[in-house]
Amino acid sequence: MRLSSMTDYAVVMMSAAARHCGAARVNAAELAAETGIPVPTAQKLASLLSKAGLIRSSRGSGGGIQLARPAAAISLADIVEAVEGPIAMTACVENGRHDCGLEDSCAVKPHWGAVNSAVRGALTGVTLASLSQEAQA
Amino acid sequence: MRLSSMTDYAVVMMSAAARHCGAARVNAAELAAETGIPVPTAQKLASLLSKAGLIRSSRGSGGGIQLARPAAAISLADIVEAVEGPIAMTACVENGRHDCGLEDSCAVKPHWGAVNSAVRGALTGVTLASLSQEAQA
DNA sequence: CATAATCGGAACGAATCAATCCGATTAAGG
DNA sequence: CCTTAATCGGATTGATTCGTTCCGATTATG
């Protein structure tokens, strides 16, 4: 019940990118320096986020990345799914995996779908824009 | 964003125990045989669930375990916290851990509390009684 | 056309997790 | 009161996944 470090870094990185939204392109190394994330890790995250369509990446010298969507249109669920894949609490609901050993006799299995939807809804309700806001403390 | 196998097994095991609620005591080996969970794993889970106060264990010959509370009063969040510890999406909010490297400059940190509450609320809304119901499919 | 800087994917090492085994404790039965 | 039986509890081993790092392919610039 804890998201991986990669996802945590991805959220921090996206938040930093959101603050740089004005600047057309920011390279991954710059974001890494600001956030403290190791540079290779930031590059790997940039690849994942780019493939997921959350950011647009420009190659070549002077290139960099920028948000593909407004920060308000990017939810925490999007980032989690981009890094960790589909949100699935259990291996039962994964497609093609049948190593549970119970399968049909498991009375709990049919209920996981509702749980997944509830958790996903909770994460969808949090937008990147709200995460980028400064703390009110 | 996936709960561990131990938690998955714990939910299945608690569901099986709920169905045996009529029988005063059921030993862990019996539940393991019904659910297909390895016996040593079931024993370890029984220890965790007992320490968390979700089940009552009776030692000695003829002993076993039984639910400490009605199934409707046990939520999925209780089981998750019993096995995996407090629900915390990130290591930031863990008490005593300060290995993030960002700490104060992290603008995202203050918002994780709300996310944790949202997810925890989603899990609290699912009771063991509803999980024990047969599938309506 | 040559150069430089970037993204993309693949390989290595470390840490956590899951499963297993053995000892201590406890209640019942003779 | 003693023996027996069955259970919890913690410690060890192995495997899987995660995190990090490095190298090659691509692309805009000078």
How many runs of DSSP E, i.e. beta strands of chain A? 2
Series of secondary-structure elements of chain A, N-terminal to C-terminal: HHHEEHHH
Major β-sheet of chain A, in short?
A: 2 strands, antiparallel
List the chains of the largest interface with their residue counts: A-B, 47 and 48 residues
Distance between the termini of chain A: 27 Å
- Specify Rg of chain A, calculated over alpha carbons: 17 Å
Low-confidence stretches of chain A: none
| Category by helix and strand content of chain A | mainly alpha
Number of helices of chain A: 6
Which shape of chain A, going by the Cα principal axes? elongated
This entry's quaternary arrangement is homodimer
Beta-strand percentage range of chain A: 5-15%
Helix content of chain A: 40-55%
What strand line-up does the widest sheet of chain A have? 1-2
| Mean pLDDT reading of chain A | 83
Structure notes:
The first copy, chain A, has helices spanning 5-19, 28-35, 39-51, 76-84, 112-124, 128-132, and strands spanning 55-58, 64-67. With 137 residues, the first copy, chain A, is mainly alpha-helical. A two-stranded antiparallel sheet of chain A has the order 1-2. The model of chain A has no long low-confidence stretch (mean pLDDT 83). The first copy, chain A, binds a DNA duplex (30 and 30 nucleotides) through helix 3.
